[in-house]
Design the sequence.
């Protein structure tokens, strides 16, 4: 059964800009799918549609066989909990500790007032610590987020996503602001959690080289249309 399924998805922004045009896309559990395309092609629009950071204009998106397009209230929250998100700019709370940042992956599991007071259970702190171990940053738990390098901050955001215990990780240009060396470290971590934990990864990249190095499948987007979808080996002629 597919874990992500787009059926005839269209997204038109309020000003009339076409974000996505007639997208059909089926992703199975455990896949590592790289979305490539030029700037403005619609990659972020596609990502943000998956966990409904914005609404689509028409069509349907199913997550694990349930329509997130139709979901409301608690059902939408529980579906979003299954989807971890990683952003180009990390989206960390800069002045908070690494541990505190990673614990925000538990948002939605707690009432807001407990979150604000930092009242997390021992089990959740343990979970956060284990996530940090997986990205080899356990020695940084009490460091302030903005004391870390860009690559380390991105790995903290991977740990935050893991703490959510997601079935899917969406990574929207996660390496766009990193240097080449750090880039590989972050990509290696994403590959590792895909292989070791079986988490489905959907990632946006500008670089075709990286897409081929890490992806098992490439989806090409141009002007909101899906123009390529296939295994990496067959992507050579098209890219
Ligand atoms: P990227 O190309 O990395 O996706 P952009 O610089 O295109 O990022 O967009 C940054 C932000 O500006 C996003 O939140 C996006 O939704 C918004 N944005 C992009 N293009 C437009 C536009 N034409 N009108 C209004 N907002 C836009
Ligand atoms: P990519 O991630 O591939 O760079 P985006 O998904 O950010 O592309 O953008 C796709 C198209 O939608 C672009 O033309 C962009 O300017 C436009 N766009 C993105 N966000 C908005 C927005 N909030 N309002 C209007 N247009 C937008």
Sequence:
């Amino acid at each position: 059964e597919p874990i992500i399924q787009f059926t005839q998805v269209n997204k038109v922004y309020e000003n009339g800009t076409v974000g996505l045009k007639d997208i059909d896309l089926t992703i199975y559990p455990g896949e590592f799918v790289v979305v490539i395309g030029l700037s403005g092609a619609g990659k972020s629009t596609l990502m943000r549609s998956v966990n409904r950071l914005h609404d689509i204009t028409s069509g349907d998106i199913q997550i694990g066989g349930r329509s997130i397009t139709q979901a409301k209230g608690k059902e939408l929250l529980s579906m979003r909990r299954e989807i971890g998100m990683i952003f180009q700019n990390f989206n960390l709370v800069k002045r908070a500790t690494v541990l505190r940042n990673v614990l925000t992956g538990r948002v939605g599991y707690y009432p807001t007032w407990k979150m604000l007071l930092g009242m997390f259970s021992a089990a959740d702190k343990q979970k956060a610590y284990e996530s940090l171990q997986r990205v080899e940053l356990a020695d940084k738990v009490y460091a302030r987020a903005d004391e870390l390098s860009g690559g380390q901050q991105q790995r903290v955001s991977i740990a935050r996503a893991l703490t959510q215990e997601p079935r899917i990780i969406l990574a929207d240009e996660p390496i766009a602001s990193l240097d080449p060396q750090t880039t590989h470290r972050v990509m290696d971590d994403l590959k590792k959690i895909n292989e070791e934990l079986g988490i489905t990864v959907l990632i946006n990249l500008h670089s075709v080289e990286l897409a081929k190095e890490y992806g098992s499948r490439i989806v090409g987007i141009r002007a909101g249309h899906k123009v390529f979808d296939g295994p990496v080996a067959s992507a050579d002629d098209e890219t």
